[in-house]
Specification:
The complex is a heterodimer of chains A (about 475) and B (about 850).
Chain A lengths: L1 E6 L7 H5 L7 E5 L2 E10 L4 E9 L1 H6 L21 H10 L1 H5 L6 H4 L3 E11 L4 H8 L5 E8 L9 E13 L1 H16 L8 H11 L9 H8 L4 H11 L4 H19 L4 H16 L3 E5 L5 H6 L7 E6 L2 H10 L7 H4 L2 E5 L14 E5 L10 H12 L3 E7 L26 H15 L2 E7 L10 E7 L1
Parallel strand pairs in A: 8-9, 8-11, 9-10, 11-12
Antiparallel strand pairs in A: 1-4, 1-5, 2-3, 3-4, 5-7, 6-7, 12-14, 13-14
Chain B lengths: L2 E5 L2 E7 L5 H8 L5 E3 H9 L8 H17 L4 E4 L5 H13 L3 E7 L3 H10 L7 H15 L2 H4 L1 E7 L2 H6 L1 E5 L4 E2 L6 E4 L6 H10 L3 E4 L4 E4 L5 E4 L10 H14 L2 E3 L3 H10 L10 H9 L3 H13 L5 E2 L4 E3 L14 H9 L2 E5 L5 E3 L11 E4 L9 E2 L2 E3 L9 E7 L3 E6 L33 E3 L7 E3 L1 H14 L28 H10 L4 E7 L3 E8 L2 H8 L7 E4 L10 H17 L2 H5 L3 E9 L1 H36 L5 H22 L12 E10 L2 E2 L5 H14 L9 E5 L3 H16 L4 E6 L5 E2 L2 E2 L4 E4 L5 H4 L6 H7 L5 H22 L4 H14 L9
Parallel strand pairs in B: 1-7, 2-4, 2-5, 3-4, 5-6, 8-14, 9-12, 12-13, 15-18, 18-20
Antiparallel strand pairs in B: 9-21, 10-11, 14-15, 16-17, 19-20, 21-22, 23-24, 25-31, 25-32, 26-27, 26-28, 28-29, 29-30, 32-35, 33-34
Helix pairs in contact in B: 2-3, 11-13, 15-27, 18-22, 20-21, 26-27
Chain lengths: ~475, ~850
């Protein structure tokens, strides 16, 4: 990873004083993750360029030094070569006097805007070129970007997420270095170390003068802090010099507003409402939620005393852990706690633990099952578990035509194995009824389009 | 001196007042772990073995442990006074629950001795009235013990008798574990004498003599086992009885009783039974026989053991089958199960009792062979098989040869008796043996494969595997194998290589394998091909309908192709090559499983290439180009940075070689015609699991496929090595350099003759030796830099090697179980195990 900084301020070689690095020498600095080289490809009174090249130790990054493992798990990695948090650390450690703006020999120059040009040969920018411009242009930079190809031998692999970045501005050197220090890792979107409260302090130190009013402030904070909301809130509070709670309040108000706005639109919400309604009216007390995910339905049901026994099942242990967290299982009072249970299970295995329920729900589950495994799923639920009632919801594929961002022929989720039209769902449901002795009723969920029907369809099966 | 006979598996109650010497007796005659003492249990829950307040809790755990021991088939001695009837009642109930006998040993010592003993013990501070009450209760109990359900082993009336008593553990009637066969197990005969004789002859038995005095000679070492129902409905029940009774008397046969035999016995003994279901015919036939014979028949049937357990517990024969929990047990419930099986209590449309399908849920390790319910075709269901093929109804008389598991049958001469219920019952839409139960996969599992040591699957690994299997894997019935991981050699100790052939050869030399084959290692994606000749073969052999006639899946059991058309097109090519090479006919199979590498790498690893390999290449290339240019300009200016310039150049060259390396495993795939399949193992086909075969056999067979279709199949270059010959070793090393330079990832080295036992168990079935350029895409583009190489030489191979062997053993086991037509859950357990083992933390670069 590397960058160059060039000035045409005369005498340009004063850049050496600002950085405390002699233009005539090649200097090296040992860092935790490799060696930084500083040298000057060009050093004339008219134009002077300093290069910072960091030779990252790729084996050390995986194996670590000493006992602990390194921060990366892959030897084949772009990290040693892109302008990322590693480069930010190198800037702070190697170009510290430039960054702080303290120059004994050229104090006045350090405090003056001078024409500067920054070249970063490889920046990873997943958020797109627009975001990159939006980050730098408001700070007064002229921005030049060149997208780098992924592999010239295989053009059909498409473009890479890397760009060559050139920035031009008349600013103090310390300002430019501060911008790079915060914005390069934010654009890269990854950190090679644990992101904690320390990071908030770095943001305040390096961004105090310019970040508060930056139009992309929130995105930069969020990306720099790896989308940890509590940290973002803390940083925002300190940056705007407000007490933290106020910001939290403002944040919450805004969120509530957003939800209010979205409420009529949130399909998930309406789906859960519809299912909850069916369950309440059915008089069921023992409810099984297969494919319970993070437990959103269970959380709603827990609020009704009617449901004495709630069991959520999911095949993913990680998802179940998140569900337990979301439902705060470890903090529920004992009586409440005894009403709910989360279990790992597979929808294609007969499972005695699924027996004895009044209702089983499979909310947005069936479309995640391979068509060839549907038979096993049907038997698990309708033949072996055999609850009195089964509630199944699934997307209505016809409605996809109305989603502006969904290309034709694509499904709503990467893991969907199929999406049924209303007719297909009905055909499947009727076949299930015939085979296992159930009857079915269909209900729309969401706003019904006269041509395409509702976004989600629900089948309620009863023995 | 008295000898107390105690069934080997029973619940033994010591009955006697406090101080009568029960604990000392128990210590003398039983193992510590066999004795559950109420005093000890009191101590466990209260720290005080005399704390009467703890009695209730103490007995709770005593009964709990007793229950667990009996369920596990362990003799259990209850050392408590057991003088109160309610205590004994619980013991009898417990014994019945586990279908074991309850045995009582009574200590009826003179009261005077009891008082003396208790007085001498400082910890027994209860008064003499307690002893007196014990003794009185005991005396009241004595007469009724057998009525309560105990077998009375002895009443010991003096200290001398107690001291001199000896315990003799008696084997259960049904314990034939020391008899290993081979057996010929014969289905329900029902008076079909001619067919029975014909079947015996077909099995190699010489049947001579007359109908009244038959003489049967068994083939060397073999014995017939009749599953019962010798009589009723058929033309000559007395003739069958004479034949089988003679065989049993001579030791050429064993027989278990069937419900018809028992009913006949009851009738002959004058009991009032309903004469139906063909009993009338038997009685009429017996009219012509002497009285003595009728008595003999009744006594003989009475003497038969209902469900013998053979061959170290691996085989159980019972007329109507036997659940796992009841095997080897003794109770009237067990005997009833053996005679009648399990019924739901309802009757079917023909008025016959509806049978509960215990076999569908059977998960025992013993094979259960039974009859009782006529079936059109004997079928293995979870290690059980019903071999009653309805001879008397005009079907066939069938025998199962054990341990060969071959079925031999003769057709009925005619319909001797019209069945009430038609013999041909429509088969259920899908065999229940194809259903997996969550208990078949979840939780910690211990698998016992035939290649030796057991393999343990940790619970958290099973959890991870369950998710992968459920969400992504193909129908588990297709999954008869998942490939094992493979270890590299120890790192080269010196030189500029990380891996080289020398260390591979060192390993095999030390393990005593000197004849090796080196096979070119193709760089693509692992693909297991399971192919049937048509969909009906898929339905017949795999139980799969409507999911194509085969599958191509990855090493984690995922379908290789997201569209069925590509899969079918490639399968069609394999099928055509199989046919063209004449292999379908030669192997006598309509399905085959191959282990292959599917090329190019980019066909399956496109995501990985686009998200990791190519980005690293392009980022590194541009980064180093820029840095080099800057360094050049600085050097031109006279700045001294020659070492940095050289470093950047070296790095740049390494990146270029890295990019060239991954590129050569990529080419555009427009359709199936651009794919190449490189098979290297024939895994299995009908009747044979061949993973462990000699590699010359594998390669010869695969060469014929390649010859039949050289476009689809890519041949595997190979080089044979004799480690005793230095020239051979040297030429193998050169060969490795050549194939890796020419585009192979590296080579795989295997002992030619397949499987080998080494110094510590199984030798690695294969080691891989990867080429130096290929390793750039494993260890990073610049791994060859000396300071990197030195660090990378440190690598721990132990876990990887252990994993490779365990996964191989499980894959091998899965194939064998499938070929032997074991139930799905038994095959799946192994395949699932391979996937679960893959979650073990092992360096992924090895």
């Amino acid at each position: 990873m590397q960058l160059t900084i060039t000035t045409t301020h005369r005498p340009a070689t004063d850049l050496g004083y600002l950085l405390s690095k002699n233009p005539e020498r090649h200097q090296t600095f040992e860092l935790a993750f490799g060696i930084a080289h500083v040298f000057y490809p060009e050093a004339t009174p008219e134009r002077c360029t300093v290069a910072l090249v960091v030779d990252v130790d790729p084996v050390g990054l995986v194996r670590g030094r000493g006992d602990a493992d390194g921060p990366l798990t892959q030897y084949v990695n772009d990290r040693p070569f892109t302008a990322s948090s590693f480069l930010a650390v190198a800037i702070a450690q190697v170009l510290s006097s430039g960054l702080s703006g303290n120059s004994k020999a050229r104090a006045e120059l350090a405090a003056s805007p001078i024409p500067l040009e920054v070249e970063v040969p490889v920046v990873r920018c997943r958020a797109g070129l627009g975001k990159l411009r939006a980050c730098f242009e408001p700070l007064g930079y002229g921005v030049d970007v060149e997208a780098l190809p992924l592999d010239t031998s295989f053009p059909d692999w498409g473009p890479s997420t890397y760009v060559r970045l050139t920035l031009r501005a008349t600013l103090r050197l310390s300002q430019v270095l501060q911008h790079l220090y915060l914005l390069l890792p934010a654009l890269d979107g990854d950190k090679h170390y644990y992101v904690g409260s320390d990071e908030v302090q770095k943001l305040l130190d390096k961004g105090a003068d310019w970040l508060a009013t930056h139009p992309e402030r929130d995105w930069i904070l969020s990306s720099y802090l790896k989308r940890q909301r509590s940290l973002v809130r803390e940083a925002l509070g300190k940056l705007l010099t407000q007490p933290e709670d106020d910001v939290g309040e403002a944040d919450r108000e805004r969120e509530a507003g957003e939800q209010q706005l979205e409420r009529p639109l949130s399909l998930n919400e309406r789906r859960l409402e519809a299912v909850e309604d069916v369950l309440l009216r059915s008089g069921a007390s023992r409810v099984l939620d297969v494919g319970c995910g993070e437990g959103r339905l269970l959380g709603r049901l827990l609020e009704h005393r009617q449901f004495r026994n709630l069991v959520g099942m999911d095949v993913s242990p990680v998802t179940l852990e998140r569900a337990a967290e979301r439902l705060r299982l470890d903090r529920l009072p004992p009586l409440q706690r005894s009403r709910i249970e989360l279990l790992q299970a597979s929808l294609t295995c007969r499972d005695a633990r699924m027996s004895g329920f009044d209702v089983a729900c499979a909310i947005e589950v069936v479309e995640h099952i391979d068509p060839s495994r549907l038979g096993a799923f049907e038997r698990t639920l309708f033949e072996f578990a055999r609850p009195d009632c089964v509630v199944v919801t699934t997307p209505n594929a016809e409605y996809n035509a109305l989603f502006p961002n969904l290309p034709a022929g694509r499904m709503r989720h990467r893991d969907h194995r199929f999406e049924w039209t209303r007719a297909e769902f009905a055909q499947w449901a009727r076949a299930v009824c015939e085979r296992f002795g159930y009857g079915v009723q269909f209900f729309p969920i969401g706003d019904v389009d006269p041509q395409h029907g509702p976004p989600t369809q629900m089948g309620v099966f009863r023995r | 001196m008295s000898t107390l006979r105690i069934p080997e598996l029973s619940l033994v109650a010591l009955v006697g007042a406090s101080g009568s010497g029960k604990s000392t007796f128990a210590r003398t005659h039983f193992r510590t772990t066999e004795v559950l003492s109420s005093d000890a249990c009191r101590a466990l829950v209260s720290d005080d073995e005399n704390d009467q307040a703890a009695t209730r809790d103490a007995f709770d755990i005593l009964y709990y442990i007793a229950g667990k021991r009996l369920a596990a088939g362990k003799l259990t001695v209850v050392d408590a006074t057991n003088v109160r009837p309610e205590d004994r009642k619980r013991l009898v109930a417990l014994a019945r629950e586990h279908h074991v006998l309850a045995t009582a040993i009574v200590f009826d010592l003179p009261e005077r001795i009891l008082h003396e003993r208790n007085a001498a013990r400082p910890d027994r501070n209860f008064g003499p009235h307690v002893i007196r009450s014990h003794v009185q209760s005991l005396h009241r109990a004595l007469r009724g013990l057998e009525k309560e359900g105990f077998k009375l082993a002895a009443i010991l009336r003096s200290a001398d008798e107690v001291a001199q008593a000896e315990i003799l553990r008696e084997k259960a009637w049904n314990d034939h574990r020391d008899q290993h066969g081979p057996f010929d197990i014969i289905g329900d005969v029902h008076g079909c004498l001619d067919e029975c004789v014909q079947l015996l002859r077909q099995l190699g038995y010489a049947v001579e003599g007359t109908r009244e005095a038959p003489r049967v000679t068994a083939p060397e070492g073999r014995r017939a086992v009749f599953v019962g129902d010798l009589v009723d409905r058929g033309p000559d029940s007395p003739g069958v009885l004479r034949l089988v009774m003679a065989m049993v008397a001579e030791g050429t046969a064993l027989c278990v009783p069937g419900n018809h035999d028992v009913k006949l016995m009851k009738k002959l003994r004058g009991r009032d039974v309903k004469v139906s279901h063909g009993l009338a015919e038997t009685l009429a036939q017996l009219e012509g026989e002497p009285d003595a014979f009728r008595r003999e028949v009744a006594d003989w049937v009475y003497s038969l053991v209902s469900h013998p357990v053979f061959d170290d517990g691996k085989l159980v024969v019972a007329h109507a089958g036997m659940k796992e929990a009841l095997q080897g047990r003794a109770s009237s419930a067990v005997r009833d199960f053996a005679l009648y099986g399990e019924t739901t209590g309802e009757t079917d449309e023909y008025g016959l009792p509806e049978r509960y399908d215990w076999a569908a849920e059977y998960r025992g390790s013993a094979i259960v062979v039974y009859g009782h319910t006529p079936v059109p075709e004997p079928q293995w269901v979870n290690r059980t098989i019903c071999i009653d093929t309805g001879c008397v109804f005009g079907g066939r008389l069938t025998a199962l040869r054990y341990p060969e598991r071959e079925l031999v049958s003769v057709p009925a001469a005619r319909v001797h008796y019209e069945p009430v219920r038609p013999l041909v019952v429509p088969p259920p839409p899908e065999r229940d043996a194809g259903v997996l139960d969550i208990d078949d996969v979840l939780g910690k599992r211990v698998i016992t494969p035939r290649l030796g040591r057991t393999v343990t699957i940790r619970e958290e690994n099973a959890r991870a595997a369950l998710e992968v299997m459920s969400r992504f894997a193909v129908d588990p019935r297709w999954l008869i194998y998942l490939p094992p991981t493979m270890s590299p050699p120890a790192a080269a100790r010196d030189g500029d290589l990380l891996e080289r052939p020398a260390e591979v050869f060192d390993y095999f030399r030390e393990e005593g394998a000197t004849s090796l084959v080196c096979e070119e290692k193709h760089m693509g994606s692992r693909a297991v091909v399971v192919l049937c000749r048509d969909e009906s073969a898929a339905a017949r052999r795999f139980g799969i309908r409507g999911d194509g006639r085969g599958v191509i899946h990855t090493r984690t059991g995922r379908r290789f192709f997201s569209d069925g058309a590509s899969e079918e097109a490639l399968l069609a090519r394999v099928d055509a090559a199989m046919a063209a090479a004449g292999l379908w006919d030669e192997l006598g199979t309509d399905w085959i499983a191959l282990d292959t590498e599917l090329l190019p790498w980019s066909a399956k690893a496109g995501d990985l290439l686009r998200s990791q390999y190519a980005p690293t290449g392009t980022a590194a290339g541009h980064a180093l180009a820029a840095s080099s240019a800057w360094a050049d300009r600085a050097a031109t200016r006279g700045v001294a940075l020659e070492p940095l310039k050289q470093l950047l150049q070296r790095r740049g060259a390494a990146i270029e070689r890295y990019v060239a390396e991954y590129r050569r495993y990529c080419w555009p795939v427009r359709g199936v015609e651009d794919l190449r399949l490189a098979p290297f193992h024939v895994l299995a086909f009908e009747g044979s699991a061949t993973l462990h075969n000699d590699h010359r056999w594998h390669l010869a067979l695969i060469d014929r496929l390649c010859a039949a279709d050289s476009t689809t199949f890519r041949a595997t270059q190979r080089h044979y090595v004799d480690l005793a010959d230095a020239a051979s070793v040297a030429s193998a090393t050169t060969w490795w350099r050549d194939v890796t330079a020419a585009g192979s990832e590296g080579m795989v080295v295997k002992p030619v003759d397949g499987l080998r036992q080494g110094r510590k168990g199984l030798v690695q079935p294969a080691l891989k030796c990867r080429g130096p350029e290929y390793l750039r895409i494993i260890y990073g583009p610049t791994y060859t830099e000396p300071e990197n190489l030195e660090r990378l030489r440190q690598r721990a191979l132990g876990p990887k090697r252990s994993l490779a062997v365990r996964e191989y053993i499980l894959g091998h086991e899965a194939l064998h179980r499938f070929v032997e037509r074991e139930p799905l859950y038994r095959v799946h357990e192994c395949v699932f195990g391979v996937l679960a083992l893959e979650s073990e933390p092992v360096d992924p670069r090895l």
